[in-house]
Amino acid sequence: MKAPRSMINRIEITPIIPDARAKLKLKQLKSLEISKKIINLWLTDVYTIDKAFSIGKLQKITQLLTNPVIQTASINKSFAPNHFTWAVEIGFLPGVTDNVGSTAKESIEDFFRTQSHTNSGKRLKFSQKEGVYFSQIIYIQGNLSIKEVEILTSSLFNPLIQRANVKSYRQFKKDKGMNAFIPKVKLRKKVEIDKVNLNVSDEELITIGKQGIANKNGGRRGPLSLSLGYMKTIQAYFKKKKRQPTDIELESIAQTWSEHCKHTIFADPVDEIENGLFKTYIKNATEKIRKSKKGKDFCVSVFKDNSGAIIFDENYLITDKVETHNSPSALDPFGGAITGIVGVNRDTIGFGLGAKPIINRYGFCFADPKDKNDLYKGVNFTQKMLSARRIMDGVIEGVNVGGNCSGIPTPQGFVFFDKRYRGKPLVFVGTLGLIPRKINKKDSHKKKASPGDLIVIIGGRVGLDGIHGATFSSEAMDSGSPMGAVQIGDPITQKKLSDAVIKEVRDKNLYTSITDNGAGGLSCSVAEMAKESGGCEVQLEKVPLKYSGLIPWQVWISESQERMTLAIPPKNWVRFKKIMDKHGVEATIIGTFTDSGKCIVSFNQQTIMDVDMDFLHNGLPIRPMRTKKYKIPKFTVNIPEPTDYGRIIFELLTRPNITSYSFISTQYDHEVQGGSVLKPLQGRGRVNADACVVKPVFNSIKGVVLSQGCYPNLSDYDTYQMAASCIDTAIRNAVAAGANIEYLALLDNFCWCSSDKPERLWQLKKATKACYDYATAFQTPFISGKDSMFNDFKGFDKNGKPIKISVPPTLLISSLGVIDDVSKAISIDVKFPGDLIYIIGETHDELTGSEYYAYLSDQEKKRVAGINIPRVNAFQNRKLYKTIYQCIKENLIASAVSVGRGGLAIAMVKKCIAGMLGAKINLESIPGTVSQNDNLLFSESQGRILITVATRNKKRFEKIMADVPKSLIGKVFEKPNLEINTNSNVRLVNINLAKAYQAYHSTYKDY
């Protein structure tokens, strides 16, 4: 007699050794007052299987999912610790991507497929209605009331994407465990295509543009981010066609015209700049530089593909792209960040005919994780925002999972803290790619869909996740920000897609064009590719769905992840499909590229979208903008010279913007793919470096150098000089690591706030003007960029009062260079006792916006600002950077560090901590003009690099550096102390390096 088959089964897996995850969870709960009442905590992983299995097969599945050395498991029976007070089970809501569950389902299918081959049995396959769902039970021991458990539970899950079930010990025993829950999406079966009446008042047009199309129940579908001018242009277009638009047509136009996709603030006229800020300042800078380089131009593809590309060597190109994922990360930090990193990975795969992702980079702008201020999107304390700590932890974990699970190293990044990122964090994620210069004797960076090519989508299926992501990201966050905009990326699915495309299909010449499904989903990817051929026809019912019941407009604009769109000649389809099937990647024909000049979409043979390509892409009206000069706030400054510099240096070392963020660096795998040369943490003292070097081609001695510059702290005073400092720092950091300034490219990411306000536009105009001036002066072209213009939070504070929090105008400049010989890369740590220490560049009284003044502001409880913002001398610095590269080529430099936040004192301390060797410094002959010692030590003047040189190289080094400002200021010693003396040889500082090491690594040691 066969054993009975149960339809819903739960497998619970519990560690039998001390669980590091439980310890980490306890550590994360320390910020709660009630954490003191928690005695112990245990975790159990749960796999709920929605498919009938015999007991025998369930036992095999359990063995597959369990490591018997460290875990024990139970089937359809709760396995709980003997002493617990409360049980909290957390799992995903219906429709949310469940990476662990999906991987378990695929593992089960693979296991039984292997078994079927061995035993000639029937192959097991889950149907679309069946699945595996992951959840986790947290058992808590402690004297907690139900209210306290509710507070604790709210800190453990995100209600936007997760569900939580709480039971007391008594209820748990009574119910014999937690309830089985299957998070299936249940949607209406009736599919409707609505017409949208645009023959309405301007007020109603504004409402539609802001809140979305009206549903029959009186609600709205979510933001279109279309201004009245845009709405009236759409109204006139369909009036000329003598009909009203369908919902899918209006939604599609909104995605295509969104600020996120069209970057209208950068494209439209501003004051006298008729061609817009991007063309006038960013694009023109690159064109001017490339012309001046003539035969030495290393750029290949700029501002016209998913990434920019430069020449790596005679065989390969290197691509680079940095994206932002700010708004989604505010709602769901993990989902927003992982979607950002896997999304920019797809930008790499979608470059040209497909580049291999080889390096990830990141940048995080957060509020202090200790910030306890509560924020609410809704009135009456509704729609509570996540805490600063939850946002930080979630974002870091999202990039961790996205990169580590994809097998892409993440060696380079930064973190910056400011309380104004409390409403919306900034999450920068970037990816470098490697692609042969020629594929089948054709330029790899060129692609073009042709009429007759099949429209094919590959990868993940479409669901409700990511609805209105592009339009949501084009405006400030408020109570109307849609939950559906949140997505969660699946790096495992995407890794299979990436391997199938890059490792096999690409070089077989089976497709003519490829791009990713990012913002706007199919509506943007298909329509963008259709510009190459001249039109498209799509049969929307053919799009594979995660679940039935989606309305056509939802299918068209959904930003569900892990999808690429390709153009495939019909003769190649069978071969292409066979390869995709081999890799377990779903591939589906959904239409044909045409030359009709129209974007036509049908559903079950009914035409639901028929829009002219020219209107879709070029029909949006030009909106001239006017600026108004930003008034710099005035502050009174009267700062006496300190008496205890040692104490100040120790306290600066613990500040969030200076201290070690190794708790991030050590989570991110930077060794995978085997190309790491200069690591994220350098020296025996493991100090975070400002640049890294990676070798992308295993049998080549060439490498790439990556760095960045970001100074939001200067935006309050002068965005022109802020941008100048970002550029100089991105260049200087790379040069200090071994880069040649003559072979260095830049990327720009503008994250602004309230960009429709004249004062903010004025600041933006000044910053972009600086990008032109300094990029051309340094001769460093821009190859790619991205902007995010409305990083504002509109809601309510902890007292229920209306509040608006705007991020400081933030510009990230990323640098990318090629090093001819990675053996010449320079790390930051001092190397040998007796080495000479030089400061290169000038120091001035430039403390405005500095970390030292921020420290004094916190001490004095009032704003300390100063009057002198750092100013960049590009022509002098370019000459300086060229001479440093000459010294590097001749192996004259032992170590180098860029002088950044905290000034010379902090740079010197970090250098010594990294090498765990002492030094003696004299400030007497430092180049520049400085009024007092705190300026000498903490000024953040640009263009400075601290270098150590072996005594045998002194003469040659000084000869090469003869025409640039420099000074020999000290020597490296074995004694583990840093001693700094003044002009009159009076000792200012005597720091023990062991204590400095502890201070530097103390701030986030428990994170």
Measured as a percent range, the helix fraction is 25-40%
Q: What is the radius of gyration?
A: 29 Å
The average pLDDT value, as a whole number, equals 90
Estimate the global geometry from the Cα principal axes: globular
**Could you give the order of strands across the largest sheet?**
18-20-17-21-19-22-23
- Report low-confidence residues grouped into runs of 5 or more: 470-483
The portion of residues forming beta strands comes to 15-25%
**How would you name the CATH homologous superfamily of the domain at 826-1007?**
PurM-like C-terminal domain
Multimeric organization:
single chain
| Counted beta strands | 42
Fold-level CATH name of the domain at 826-1007: Phosphoribosyl-aminoimidazole Synthetase, Chain A, domain 2
The number of helical runs is 30
- Report on the biggest sheet: 7 strands, mixed
Q: CATH architecture of the domain at 826-1007, please?
A: Alpha-Beta Complex
How far do the termini sit from each other?
55 Å
In CATH's first tier, which class of the domain at 826-1007 applies?
Answer: Alpha Beta
Domain PurM-like N-terminal: 305-435, 690-788
Family: Belongs to the FGAMS family.
Keywords: ATP-binding, Cytoplasm, Ligase, Magnesium, Metal-binding, Nucleotide-binding, Purine biosynthesis
Catalytic activity: N(2)-formyl-N(1)-(5-phospho-beta-D-ribosyl)glycinamide + L-glutamine + ATP + H2O = 2-formamido-N(1)-(5-O-phospho-beta-D-ribosyl)acetamidine + L-glutamate + ADP + phosphate + H(+)
